[in-house]
Design brief:
Elements: H1 21-31, H2 34-40, H3 63-72, E1 77-79, H4 88-104, E2 107-111, H5 117-131, H6 135-139, E3 150-153, E4 168-175, H7 186-213, H8 220-223, E5 230-237, E6 247-252, E7 258-263, E8 270-274, E9 277-280, E10 288-292, H9 294-300, H10 306-309, E11 318-321, E12 328-335, E13 346-347, E14 365-366, H11 367-377, H12 384-389
Parallel strand pairs: 1-2
Antiparallel strand pairs: 2-10, 3-4, 4-5, 5-12, 6-11, 7-10, 7-12, 8-9, 8-11, 13-14
Helix pairs in contact: 4-7, 5-7
């Protein structure tokens, strides 16, 4: 990736009498062709709706500085290969690595995780095929309806976020109730179904490791239904003529329990905020990236005293840079429970992690309430957890 400085537009640049942002947003949305449509049209300058604002200007965006920080920090890579050998000492070592990574970074990569590399490569290729198919085929699936289980759109928060991101997304809700087979494009149907099975297995294994690391029973987080429902967000980041002006995805933390990310094997772009510096997460062929989301943080850090003991495990802000080279693809699997299913279940404190002196930090919430807030506000630099649910 070309190392450039992320430039930002001041709020004043968007405030002139001749600029109608809402009109431009609607015009872009109505094409149903996404960012890929702009690139196919041969644009040389990005539309104003994509220019990043100064909402996170306090964080350095100079990629030369970031390169120096990447030499100092690196996201841990954890080998899960020995976890099935029945060696308790080896299992404890892996658990310690997972908890330490969550404490210090909020992110880690896993290798020898059981998901075939061939399937991972096939999944990335099918996502690329989806986004590079004829425009009319993509447009037929374009929808801004979060209730559809299989759809295509550009920026779920297009009309809420302060700046539009340079990406398009194929969305597929795979569990607890998957879409009908005919709702998934035929050329990716078998691949995404097989990949979904592998993601469920890996998620449940990771939840067991985290639960044990917190001193809970092995099935505790599984029984909380943290891994019962999941979505695929299959992102496509077209080459950008002005990558210094916009983001692939702006700064955010994930609105789920756990995320497993398959990123492009060749093009970097993902960065994690660590000690107030943006650190690159370079592609490692065969590796999967894991991070905790806001809903997991709310469950394990519900009380102030947990800040000293178990609030070590937090959802961490991250972002994706745009690039000049060529399109980048990724597949994010978001484990977010059963938020689209009727449920009055509220998520609050894990009682086994509390003491008598603890006091509330976040109020209880249902998955539906939390995610409705998340989708309603968009990626504006603040998580829904802080915006609505913190006392």
């Amino acid at each position: 990736m070309e190392k450039t400085q992320i430039m930002v537009a001041s709020n004043g640049d968007n405030e002139n009498n001749n600029y109608d942002r809402m009109k431009e947003l609607k015009a872009f949305d109505e094409t149903k062709l996404g960012v890929k449509g702009l690139v196919d049209a041969g644009i040389k300058k990005i539309p104003k709706i994509f220019i990043a604002l100064t909402d996170d200007a306090h964080i350095k965006k100079n990629l030369d500085s970031y390169s120096e920080s990447s030499k100092e920090f690196s996201i841990p890579i954890i080998d899960l290969g020995d976890i099935t050998k029945g060696d308790d000492q080896r299992r404890k070592m892996i658990i310690d690595q997972v908890i330490s990574s969550c404490e210090n970074y909020g992110f880690f990569q896993v290798v020898n995780h059981g998901v075939p590399k061939s399937l991972m490569d096939e999944m990335l290729e099918k996502v690329r095929m989806f986004h590079e198919q004829p425009a009319e085929a993509r447009a037929a699936l374009y929808a801004r309806n979060h209730d559809k289980k299989s759809s295509y759109l550009s920026n779920f928060d297009l009309f809420q976020a302060p700046a539009t991101n340079w990406r398009d997304t194929y969305y597929c809700r795979m569990a607890p109730v998957p879409p009908k087979p005919e709702e998934i494009p035929i050329f990716m149907r078998d691949t995404i179904t097989e990949y979904s099975v592998q993601m469920e297995k890996l998620c449940l294994e990771l939840l067991e490791l985290i639960a044990e690391g917190l001193g809970l029973k092995r099935n505790y987080l599984k029984d909380m239904e943290c891994g019962k429902g999941w979505d695929f967000l299959c992102h496509y980041y077209p080459e950008c003529p002005q990558p210094e002006l916009t983001f692939g995805i702006s700064k955010h933390s994930d609105a789920d329990f756990l995320t497993i990310l398959l990123q492009d094997n060749h093009i970097s772009g993902l960065q994690v905020l660590h000690k107030n510096q943006w650190v690159d997460v370079p592609p490692v062929h065969g590796a999967l990236i894991v991070n905790l989301g806001d809903l997991f943080q709310a469950s394990i850090s519900f009380y102030d005293n947990i800040l000293i003991t178990n609030d070590r495990l937090k959802s961490v802000e991250h972002r994706v840079l745009s690039n000049l080279e060529k399109p980048r693809v990724s597949v994010a699997c978001f484990f977010n429970g059963t938020h689209l299913e009727p449920s009055t279940r509220k998520y609050g404190p894990i009682k086994e992690l509390l003491t008598e002196t603890d006091r509330p930090k976040y109020r209880e919430t249902t998955l539906y309430e939390y995610l409705t807030t998340h989708y309603g506000k968009g990626l504006d630099g603040e998580s829904a957890l802080t915006a609505l649910f913190k006392f």
